[in-house]
Amino acid sequence: MYINSAAVHARQEEKEAALQEAQGVVLLEGVSCDEDPAWTLELLQRAAPTVERLEVRNPGEPHLRAAHAAMPRLRRLCVTCHDGHDHGAAQDAAPPELNGALPPGHSGLQWLRVWGLPRTALQSLLRAHSGTLEELQLHVGARGERGWPYNCSDLHSLLGPCGLRALRTLVLRRWGCIPTDIGGCEMQRAAVRAALPPGVQVLCSECDRLMVVTRGRHLV
Protein backbone atom coordinates (compact mmCIF):
# COMPACT_ATOMS: atom_id res chain seq x y z
CA MET A 1 0.00 0.00 0.00
CA TYR A 2 1.47 3.33 -1.08
CA ILE A 3 0.37 6.60 0.53
CA ASN A 4 1.10 9.57 -1.74
CA SER A 5 0.63 13.26 -0.98
CA ALA A 6 -2.79 13.27 -2.63
CA ALA A 7 -4.01 10.63 -0.19
CA VAL A 8 -2.89 12.72 2.78
CA HIS A 9 -4.84 15.72 1.48
CA ALA A 10 -7.85 13.78 0.22
CA ARG A 11 -11.44 14.22 1.36
CA GLN A 12 -12.38 12.81 4.73
CA GLU A 13 -14.32 9.87 3.34
CA GLU A 14 -11.35 8.90 1.15
CA LYS A 15 -9.01 9.11 4.11
CA GLU A 16 -11.35 6.92 6.13
CA ALA A 17 -11.34 4.38 3.30
CA ALA A 18 -7.54 4.40 3.34
CA LEU A 19 -7.58 3.71 7.07
CA GLN A 20 -9.80 0.71 6.46
CA GLU A 21 -7.53 -0.49 3.67
CA ALA A 22 -4.47 -0.23 5.94
CA GLN A 23 -5.80 -2.96 8.21
CA GLY A 24 -4.06 -6.20 7.36
CA VAL A 25 -1.40 -4.75 5.03
CA VAL A 26 2.10 -6.20 4.95
CA LEU A 27 3.77 -3.38 2.98
CA LEU A 28 3.14 0.31 3.74
CA GLU A 29 5.25 2.98 2.05
CA GLY A 30 5.32 6.69 1.24
CA VAL A 31 3.84 7.79 4.58
CA SER A 32 4.67 11.52 4.96
CA CYS A 33 3.95 11.92 8.64
CA ASP A 34 4.39 15.69 8.79
CA GLU A 35 1.63 16.49 6.27
CA ASP A 36 -1.18 15.27 8.53
CA PRO A 37 0.38 13.97 11.76
CA ALA A 38 -2.84 12.80 13.42
CA TRP A 39 -4.17 10.92 10.40
CA THR A 40 -0.85 9.30 9.50
CA LEU A 41 -0.42 8.19 13.11
CA GLU A 42 -3.81 6.52 12.99
CA LEU A 43 -2.82 4.95 9.67
CA LEU A 44 0.28 3.44 11.27
CA GLN A 45 -1.76 2.21 14.21
CA ARG A 46 -4.26 0.51 11.89
CA ALA A 47 -1.46 -1.23 10.00
CA ALA A 48 0.60 -2.03 13.10
CA PRO A 49 -0.52 -5.62 13.82
CA THR A 50 0.41 -6.98 10.38
CA VAL A 51 2.86 -4.62 8.65
CA GLU A 52 6.28 -6.12 7.95
CA ARG A 53 7.80 -3.47 5.65
CA LEU A 54 7.38 0.26 6.29
CA GLU A 55 8.57 3.56 4.85
CA VAL A 56 7.96 6.80 6.79
CA ARG A 57 9.05 10.35 6.04
CA ASN A 58 9.56 13.14 8.56
CA PRO A 59 8.06 11.16 11.45
CA GLY A 60 7.33 12.81 14.77
CA GLU A 61 7.95 11.12 18.09
CA PRO A 62 4.51 9.40 18.15
CA HIS A 63 5.10 7.95 14.67
CA LEU A 64 8.52 6.62 15.66
CA ARG A 65 7.08 5.13 18.82
CA ALA A 66 4.39 3.39 16.77
CA ALA A 67 7.00 1.88 14.46
CA HIS A 68 9.29 1.01 17.36
CA ALA A 69 6.91 -0.54 19.85
CA ALA A 70 3.55 -1.28 18.20
CA MET A 71 4.54 -3.31 15.12
CA PRO A 72 5.47 -6.83 16.25
CA ARG A 73 6.05 -8.19 12.73
CA LEU A 74 8.07 -5.26 11.33
CA ARG A 75 11.26 -6.50 9.64
CA ARG A 76 12.21 -3.75 7.17
CA LEU A 77 12.05 -0.02 7.91
CA CYS A 78 13.01 3.05 5.89
CA VAL A 79 13.05 6.40 7.75
CA THR A 80 13.67 9.73 6.00
CA CYS A 81 13.85 13.00 7.92
CA HIS A 82 14.48 15.61 5.28
CA ASP A 83 12.96 19.08 5.08
CA GLY A 84 15.51 20.70 2.79
CA HIS A 85 17.53 22.17 5.65
CA ASP A 86 20.75 21.15 7.32
CA HIS A 87 20.40 18.37 9.86
CA GLY A 88 22.65 19.14 12.79
CA ALA A 89 22.76 20.33 16.36
CA ALA A 90 19.33 21.93 16.20
CA GLN A 91 17.72 18.61 15.36
CA ASP A 92 19.55 16.83 18.14
CA ALA A 93 18.52 19.51 20.65
CA ALA A 94 15.16 17.79 21.25
CA PRO A 95 15.39 14.36 19.61
CA PRO A 96 12.54 11.86 19.69
CA GLU A 97 12.92 9.51 22.62
CA LEU A 98 12.40 5.78 22.17
CA ASN A 99 12.11 3.25 24.94
CA GLY A 100 15.09 0.95 24.81
CA ALA A 101 14.08 -2.69 24.59
CA LEU A 102 11.48 -4.08 22.23
CA PRO A 103 8.27 -5.36 23.80
CA PRO A 104 7.97 -9.15 24.14
CA GLY A 105 6.88 -10.93 20.99
CA HIS A 106 8.43 -8.46 18.55
CA SER A 107 10.42 -9.93 15.68
CA GLY A 108 12.99 -7.12 15.50
CA LEU A 109 14.26 -5.38 12.38
CA GLN A 110 16.47 -7.22 9.91
CA TRP A 111 16.93 -4.25 7.54
CA LEU A 112 17.02 -0.51 8.22
CA ARG A 113 17.65 2.54 6.04
CA VAL A 114 17.94 6.00 7.62
CA TRP A 115 18.43 9.51 6.34
CA GLY A 116 18.52 12.45 8.74
CA LEU A 117 17.13 10.84 11.88
CA PRO A 118 18.71 12.56 14.91
CA ARG A 119 21.77 10.74 16.17
CA THR A 120 20.40 9.93 19.61
CA ALA A 121 17.16 8.55 18.16
CA LEU A 122 19.16 6.49 15.67
CA GLN A 123 21.31 5.07 18.45
CA SER A 124 18.32 4.05 20.54
CA LEU A 125 16.72 2.41 17.50
CA LEU A 126 19.91 0.50 16.71
CA ARG A 127 20.33 -0.66 20.28
CA ALA A 128 16.76 -1.94 20.40
CA HIS A 129 17.30 -4.04 17.26
CA SER A 130 20.94 -4.94 17.83
CA GLY A 131 20.20 -8.63 18.14
CA THR A 132 18.36 -8.94 14.80
CA LEU A 133 19.56 -6.17 12.46
CA GLU A 134 21.53 -7.69 9.58
CA GLU A 135 21.75 -4.80 7.11
CA LEU A 136 21.98 -1.09 7.89
CA GLN A 137 21.97 1.64 5.25
CA LEU A 138 22.84 5.17 6.34
CA HIS A 139 22.75 8.32 4.22
CA VAL A 140 25.87 10.01 5.59
CA GLY A 141 28.87 11.99 4.43
CA ALA A 142 32.42 11.36 5.61
CA ARG A 143 33.75 14.76 6.60
CA GLY A 144 33.01 18.41 5.99
CA GLU A 145 31.83 21.64 7.58
CA ARG A 146 28.09 20.94 7.67
CA GLY A 147 26.36 19.07 10.47
CA TRP A 148 24.85 15.62 10.71
CA PRO A 149 24.39 13.66 8.51
CA TYR A 150 26.62 15.45 6.01
CA ASN A 151 29.66 15.39 8.28
CA CYS A 152 29.99 12.07 10.06
CA SER A 153 33.68 11.57 10.60
CA ASP A 154 32.85 10.10 14.03
CA LEU A 155 30.44 7.47 12.72
CA HIS A 156 32.44 4.78 14.51
CA SER A 157 31.70 6.38 17.88
CA LEU A 158 27.99 6.42 17.06
CA LEU A 159 27.78 2.79 15.93
CA GLY A 160 30.30 1.14 18.24
CA PRO A 161 28.27 1.37 21.48
CA CYS A 162 25.10 0.00 19.82
CA GLY A 163 26.16 -3.65 20.12
CA LEU A 164 25.18 -4.61 16.56
CA ARG A 165 25.99 -8.28 17.04
CA ALA A 166 23.80 -9.54 14.15
CA LEU A 167 25.02 -6.98 11.59
CA ARG A 168 26.43 -8.35 8.36
CA THR A 169 26.38 -5.35 6.02
CA LEU A 170 26.66 -1.59 6.49
CA VAL A 171 26.05 0.57 3.42
CA LEU A 172 27.08 4.23 3.52
CA ARG A 173 24.86 5.92 0.98
CA ARG A 174 26.29 9.21 -0.26
CA TRP A 175 23.33 10.39 -2.32
CA GLY A 176 22.09 13.74 -1.00
CA CYS A 177 25.27 14.34 1.00
CA ILE A 178 28.37 16.33 0.14
CA PRO A 179 30.47 14.37 -2.38
CA THR A 180 32.89 12.21 -0.46
CA ASP A 181 36.62 12.33 -1.12
CA ILE A 182 38.27 8.94 -1.33
CA GLY A 183 40.64 9.60 1.55
CA GLY A 184 37.86 10.66 3.89
CA CYS A 185 35.79 7.64 2.94
CA GLU A 186 38.66 5.22 3.53
CA MET A 187 39.39 6.72 6.95
CA GLN A 188 35.73 6.61 7.92
CA ARG A 189 35.26 3.01 6.81
CA ALA A 190 38.43 1.82 8.53
CA ALA A 191 37.33 3.37 11.83
CA VAL A 192 33.84 1.92 11.47
CA ARG A 193 35.15 -1.58 10.71
CA ALA A 194 37.25 -1.44 13.86
CA ALA A 195 34.21 -0.45 15.93
CA LEU A 196 31.88 -3.15 14.57
CA PRO A 197 31.97 -6.93 15.11
CA PRO A 198 34.49 -8.81 12.95
CA GLY A 199 33.35 -9.72 9.46
CA VAL A 200 30.87 -6.88 8.90
CA GLN A 201 31.02 -5.68 5.29
CA VAL A 202 31.25 -1.87 5.13
CA LEU A 203 30.36 -0.49 1.70
CA CYS A 204 30.20 2.98 0.13
CA SER A 205 27.60 3.66 -2.56
CA GLU A 206 30.11 5.75 -4.53
CA CYS A 207 33.40 3.94 -4.04
CA ASP A 208 31.80 0.52 -4.51
CA ARG A 209 29.53 1.79 -7.31
CA LEU A 210 26.38 0.38 -5.76
CA MET A 211 23.20 0.52 -7.81
CA VAL A 212 20.61 3.02 -6.56
CA VAL A 213 17.39 1.13 -5.86
CA THR A 214 14.18 2.68 -7.13
CA ARG A 215 11.34 3.60 -4.78
CA GLY A 216 9.67 0.72 -3.06
CA ARG A 217 12.01 -2.00 -4.32
CA HIS A 218 14.19 -1.75 -1.21
CA LEU A 219 11.27 -2.81 0.98
CA VAL A 220 10.32 -5.89 -1.02
UniProtKB/TrEMBL annotation:
Natural source organism: Frankliniella fusca
Query: Per UniProt, which keywords does this protein have?
Result: Receptor
Where is the organism placed in the taxonomic lineage, from the top?
A: Eukaryota, Metazoa, Ecdysozoa, Arthropoda, Hexapoda
The identity of this protein, by name, is Receptor-type tyrosine-protein phosphatase T
Q: Which domain of life is it from?
A: Eukaryota
The record's annotation in Gene3D superfamilies points to: Ribonuclease Inhibitor
